[in-house]
């Protein structure tokens, strides 16, 4: 699966996800006249379909209130606290700091470039 995101500030988004988050670049194409695409390897993808009630439950556990947009992107990382600090230093807004969830993971929520809301998660068990 490939998630395609239109980024108004393309250079900022590429620098954030490739250089700070560390997603390796698979392909870059410059078609001219400003038309560019960078494909990053972010690991395997799953499609999580949730009811509004489940989204509210997740938001309440991670953030303390309902904040999710219709689409949220989750990245598994080795160290949520460090990655949260790195992404915040690179311009992401921390919505909720690393929080232990009822399903035994450490999750943080951020507003990131390309108008994406991110969950960073680290499995604890």
TrEMBL record:
Signal peptide: none annotated. InterPro entries: Glyas_Bleomycin-R_OHBP_Dase, Glyas_Fos-R_dOase_dom, VOC_core. Residues 1-123 form the VOC domain. SUPFAM superfamilies: Glyoxalase/Bleomycin resistance protein/Dihydroxybiphenyl dioxygenase. Gene3D superfamilies: 2,3-Dihydroxybiphenyl 1,2-Dioxygenase, domain 1. This is VOC domain-containing protein. It comes from Kribbella sancticallisti.
